[in-house]
Design a protein that fits this description.
mainly alpha; 2 domains; three-stranded antiparallel β-sheet; 3 strands
Length: about 280
């Protein structure tokens, strides 16, 4: 859903429809927040009414727990009696494991995992109110059909969304009309070993609302390794700001100096094209 909203938002921006593009970015931001809740803070999705969950799912997680206990004790163990809270937590974890694993599974197993996810999703909507409110939408966040119908954003609001992609129309390196192996009909092992990895790009889609309510949108495209390099430098300095080395510590790093902070700011501005 997020990828579709960002792709549509990029098209709106290219067609000079900034309010529609900003609405797509706002919806994508809401989708990201829901996804973060589900993937990073799923321990908050409680309580789960286990009596409303399917029996096959409960039997599966009980079997997993029994197998784990038997493996730890190195002997056959009696079936464990899980409390409802623990059983509900394990059902949510099983649902998330299916979501993470399904993209990399073979086709037949992926279809089976998706069928289980659909069943568990429908059950969790009624069994867990927090899942329905914090991780799902009551209605699909559709973008506005026309520019005039786009909702107005609060002045001063800034929305940024990163959109990774395998190729980029702004870069000639994304297009190889002759294919990665050329037009030769005979491909050797050396040709395969000399294949170069596909260049990865990511777009930064943004919407900025000034104090008069005018929306400005745009898209900046970068190579993924360059973005990761800046991200790593910023993360290191942030860690040093939050947890600097104490005078009595043997290990660690001191808080960054004003020169270091100014340097990363200048590098970030040059990276974003704000300074030459």
């Amino acid at each position: 859903m997020r990828a579709a909203l960002l792709e549509l938002g990029s098209l709106y921006m290219a067609c000079a429809l900034p309010r529609c593009g900003a609405a797509c970015l706002a919806h994508a931001d809401a989708v990201s927040s829901k996804a973060d809740t589900l993937m990073l803070a799923n321990h908050m999705l409680a309580p789960v009414a286990v009596d409303k969950m399917p029996e096959w799912a409960k039997e599966y997680v009980r079997g997993q727990e029994d197998a784990f206990v038997a493996q730890q004790d190195n002997k056959a163990a009696a079936p464990s009696a899980l409390a409802d809270a623990d059983l509900g937590r394990m059902l949510v974890c099983h649902f998330l494991s299916l979501m993470r694993a399904s993209p990399s599974l073979p086709a037949e197993e992926a279809m089976r995992a998706e069928a289980q996810m659909i069943y568990l999703h429908s059950s969790l909507l009624t069994a867990c109110p927090r899942y329905a409110s914090d991780a799902c939408f009551s209605s699909v966040p559709l973008p506005p059909a026309i520019h005039e119908a786009a909702p107005a954003l609060a002045p001063g609001r800034v929305i940024l969304q990163w959109y990774p992609q395998d190729g980029c129309w702004q870069s000639d390196r994304s297009w190889q009309t002759g294919g990665s192996l050329g037009l030769s009909s005979h491909v050797t092992d050396k040709d395969v070993l000399n294949l170069q990895p596909v260049a990865q790009f990511t777009s930064l889609l943004y919407a900025v609302v000034n104090q008069r309510g005018t929306v400005r949108t745009g898209e900046l495209t970068f190579e993924v390794p360059a973005v990761r390099g800046i991200q790593r430098r910023v993360k290191e300095l942030r860690n040093r700001c939050e947890s600097p080395k104490a005078p009595t510590d043997l290990f660690g790093y001191e808080a960054p100096t004003a020169r270091e902070l100014s340097g990363i700011r200048t590098a970030s501005e040059r990276f974003l094209g704000m300074r030459r």
